[in-house]
Amino acid sequence: MSLIAPVVPGFVWAYHFRPGAPCTRLPLDAGRSDLEVTDGFLWLHLNLADSRVAAFLESFPDLPPPAVAALTTHDTHEAVTLDEQVVYGTLVDFQREFDSETRDIGWLHFFASGKVIITTRLQPLRSVDRVRAAIEKNASRYQKPIDVFETLLAEFQRTMISLVMELTEELNLIEDFVYDNAPRDERRRLAPVRRTVVRLHRHLRTVLTLMRRAAAVDDDEMPPGFDDAASRLISRLEAVDHDVYALQERARLLHEEIDSKLSSETNRHLYILSLMTAFLLPPSLVTGFFGMNTSSLPFAEGSDGTVYAFSLMGVSVFAAWWLLRRAGIL
Question: 82-110 in b/e burial notation, b at 16+ Cβ within 10 A?
Fold first, then answer.
């Protein structure tokens, strides 16, 4: 088995889209000359684990320095910048393993112009891999780089929907236990769900705000097709944002319900303890008063004093019970 070292540093894949022709996937040994397209556009996907990617992008034609910085940054926050009909920045995504998908946050850096879209990442990402699979099935729907950018965000939105459904199922199970008659503390199971939902809502609101801001810039700053794509993406993100917010509120109400049930259980235990104290305090006073002065202790010659002491304790317990019933406590 031979391992082919790619000529392009960090090369993961590249697709050449031609109008009226099938989409072509470039081989792993593609050179710089293969990335120069005269018709259609190119999608180049790179792995930032290769330290040579930054130098390669600096020499890439028509790539401004701010875009190079955005493609090679290790910052962990979202950003979308439009300038002179190009768009670049950082989007949030979810990491994936070779055989499974995770809920760990990953970051996708991108640059899109009229002729090329470049994406970089450090870990494999779920939405990017799904877009690649969609291109393999049907590439005719991608007419310009913004179409690939829109699909990336659309796949992120679909991923969010699937996560919302998974978290909803988890909340359903927790809710069944919370509203069951048997008291159970579900805060340990609810805490990671709430943490995940809050994190999803924070990133989703940030992406939505950035897209709204980008859609409000001047038309001459937008790449071709960005205005329509941004409108569709904003509608998609607003819909899933409503679902995530509803899930966050539901998790908060469940947490409050758990706290309320635990408080009620604690109050019931304190109530029982208070009753036991009220019943045992009078006998304690009797034994404290007569303990050193009672004659004829048990197993002694006589036991008349002990009988009187036990009788007084019984009377005192009955008197405490009568007073608590009279006061409406029992």
Answer: beeebbbbbbbbbbbeeeeeeeeebbbbb
Buried b (16+ CB within 10 A) or exposed e, 288-297: eebeeebeee
Q: What is the 3-state secondary structure (H, E, C) of 96-141?
A: ECCCCEEEEEEEEEEEECCCEEEEEECCCEHHHHHHHHHHHHCCCC
Question: Which run of H or E residues covers position 311?
Answer: helix 304-326
Spatial contact of 237 and 100, defined as CB atoms under 8 Å apart? no
For the segment 214-232, the average pLDDT, to the nearest whole number, is 84
Strands 41-47 and 116-121 turn out to be parallel
* Residue 77: other Cβ atoms inside 10 A: 11
- d(CA 50, CA 323) in angstroms, rounded, equals 82
Q: Which residue, chain included where needed, has tokens 């939105």?
A: 157
Rg (CA), the chain: 35
Give the model's confidence band at 178: pLDDT under 50 very low, under 70 low, under 90 confident, else very high. confident
Measured distance CA(106)–CA(146) in Å, rounded? 21
pLDDT tens readout for residues 287-315: 665 555 555 555 455 555 566 667 777 77
Directed axis angle between helix 226-290 and helix 187-215, to 10°?
150
